[in-house]
Specification:
Layout (H helix, E strand, L loop, with lengths): L8 H30 L12 H15 L5 H18 L7 H8 L21 E4 L2 E4 L1 E2 L7 E2 L1
Antiparallel strand pairs: 1-2, 3-4
Length: 147
């Protein structure tokens, strides 16, 4: 199933980073292969083998070594630390991905019980700059309503 629509900004950025690392790794491997063939590098254990065969082995080895296996671990540890910090501030987090999502939010709206709803909430009163305002509107349509 396609889950790209549900990806958090962190997941999207990690996917871009993985793609960039892959392209760079392939580029470096091709350059190493070409240089090795031009310099006629052969396998020290089997000097009679062709240089292109040995350089393919080297290029594939470098490509496999370039895959960053530690990135998911580092991200999980970072999110866990963020979760721990949020718990010290009395925030209940059920899913680790919610830590990243809440960390990228600039405004959080909640009802009087402090519950975050599923995007169904509409603001009716606003207090800013020492003044109170009544807000009217329909759902999330910015073209309908007034202050």
């Amino acid at each position: 199933p396609d889950t790209s629509g549900n990806a958090t900004p962190l997941q999207q950025n990690l996917e871009k980073l993985g793609g960039r690392i892959g392209v760079i790794a392939i580029g470096v491997c091709v350059v190493i292969f070409i240089i090795g063939v031009l310099m006629d590098r052969t396998d020290p254990a089997n000097p009679g083998s062709p240089s292109w065969l040995y350089m393919i082995l080297i290029a594939v080895t470098l490509a496999v070594a370039a895959i960053p296996e530690g990135i998911p671990l580092c991200v999980t540890i970072s999110l866990s630390i963020g979760c721990k910090d949020m718990v010290t501030k009395n925030v209940l987090v059920r899913k680790l991905a919610a830590v990243e999502t809440l960390g990228s939010a600039s405004v959080i709206c909640s009802d009087k019980t402090g519950t975050l709803t599923e995007g169904k909430m509409t603001m009716v009163n606003l207090y800013a700059g020492g003044k109170g305002f009544d807000v009217e509107g329909k759902g999330f349509d910015p073209t309908v309503g007034k202050i």
